[in-house]
TrEMBL record:
Domain of life: Eukaryota
Organism: Brassica rapa subsp. trilocularis
Name by which UniProt lists this protein: FBD domain-containing protein
FBD domain mapped to chain residues: 351-407
Membrane-crossing residue ranges in chain numbering: none
Gene3D superfamilies: Ribonuclease Inhibitor (3.80.10.10)
Pfam families (alphabetical): F-box (PF00646), FBD (PF08387), LRR_At5g56370 (PF24758)
Gene that encodes the chain: A04p031780.1_BraROA
Length: 408
């Protein structure tokens, strides 16, 4: 077996790319062969919560400075700064690090800043003209204004967490700067100066939005989303706070996972009637009535804690449904109150029960009277039979039962 010291620099760099930057730098102490290899690594991944700081080591900001000064890789492809501790990272240092990365053609940039640090951090101006950036993840950053000539032509993945925008228009203008954006993640945007979070991105394929407050909070009916994404393929939305969600332009073939407490549920589902896969944690309104059929729907998942009332309605309007999953494991409703009414046996038998439905899976089945009534109804009126019932352990302590029905 050969000695690792005999490997060429390119192979050693590939190995070092797999470990944290602090450990990459420490390899310089191994031997003379390793003394300068770390300088060739085109990646700085620094997380101050795991940085082993002691009296003889450099403070975090000095560590970042020295790495960037001594790095001689042809390009700095990746810069990840996860700065969570209450340290004195000045805005000037923050801007300097980003400027160095931009000058060295960074492709993947994470700027995850602690919300409680001493100085507020504004979006670095040099990024507005960095046209080769492909991935950008931001946390705890302030965006007051967006220059009119901003155009990040290569950005495909964007993550926005705990951001502070100056207005509705600033959000709209910022997202318009990414002509080829395909993946967008939004977390924790609720603020008094932004009420309508407009996501108008023609190229967007995947949208993941989450505003999770926990427990049961009163809604802000004047806060919400407008989504205009004609090429969207996957939509994941969890929101315990906003009062509305408008899908004004989404494609027919869409996979959607919706967990909303407050909104016009009839109108929202009316925008999703062409979806092939739906996962719902969505409380129906009184006397819910869908306008149109889910004539492309083949998979449906419902939260039994809030959305079981949708079962009769959606089955009636889903002639091609093949798989149904019922679940009470969704975090959205664990602490909610008065989220649904009791399930009632429908008078008419939905077409899909006798023609297309092949499997029913109930996650966390508890065998309550209501649950037994639903299962009995499905067995009596569908071409289904009991297949399997077993218990699944989660994290070694908690477990729940799974019930499965299928075609005979």
């Amino acid at each position: 077996m050969g000695n690792i010291n005999e490997l060429c620099d390119d192979l050693l760099v590939k190995i070092l790319l797999q470990i944290p930057t602090e450990e990459v730098v420490a390899t310089s102490l191994l031997s003379r062969r390793w003394r300068s290899v770390w300088k060739l690594v085109p990646k700085l991944d620094f997380r101050d919560y795991s940085y082993k700081y002691h009296a003889t080591s450099a403070v975090p900001s000095e560590f970042i400075d020295k790495f960037l000064e001594r790095n001689v890789a042809p390009a700095l492809e990746t810069l990840h700064l996860n700065l969570y501790h209450l340290r004195d990272y000045s805005p000037e240092s923050f801007e300097k690090w980003v400027n160095v990365a931009v000058a060295r053609n960074v492709l993947d940039l994470n700027l995850l800043y602690c919300l409680h640090c001493r100085y507020p951090i504004r979006f670095p101006t040099s990024l507005y003209t960095h046209e080769t950036l492909v991935v950008l993840r931001l946390r705890g950053t302030i965006i007051d204004d967006v220059p009119s000539k901003t155009r990040l032509r290569s950005l495909k993945t964007l993550s926005l967490r705990d951001m502070s925008f100056s207005s509705d228009q600033t959000v709209d203008r910022f997202l318009s700067c990414f002509p080829v954006l395909e993946t967008l993640v939004v977390r924790g945007w609720i603020a008094s100066n932004v009420k309508t979070y407009s996501i108008r991105v023609a190229s967007l394929r995947s949208l993941d939005v989450e505003e999770l407050v926990g427990g049961y909070a009163d809604p802000r009916y004047d806060h919400g989303y407008v989504i205009d994404a004609p090429r969207l393929k996957f939509l994941h939305m969890v929101d315990h706070f906003s009062g509305f969600c408008s899908l004004v332009n989404v494609p027919e073939e869409l996979e959607a996972e919706i967990h909303l407490r407050f909104c016009d549920s009839d109108k929202l589902l009316g925008s999703l009637t062409s979806a092939k896969q739906l996962s719902l944690c969505l409380k129906p309104q009184m006397d819910s009535c869908l306008k149109g059929d889910f004539d492309q729907l083949v998979f449906l998942e419902l939260c039994v804690m809030c959305s079981l009332d949708w079962l009769n309605v959606i089955l009636k309007h889903s002639p091609k449904l093949r798989a149904l999953r019922l679940s009470r494991t969704r975090h959205s409703c664990q602490n909610s109150r008065n989220v649904r009414t009791n399930w009632e046996r429908p008078i008419c038998i939905p077409e899909c029960l006798t023609s297309s439905l092949e499997t029913v899976e109930w996650i966390a089945y508890e065998g309550t009277e209501e649950e037994e009534n639903v299962v009995k109804y499905l067995l009596e009126n569908g071409n289904l039979c009991f297949k399997k019932r077993w218990r699944k352990a989660v994290y070694g302590k908690f477990s729940y039962e799974i019930l499965r029905l299928g075609r005979g």
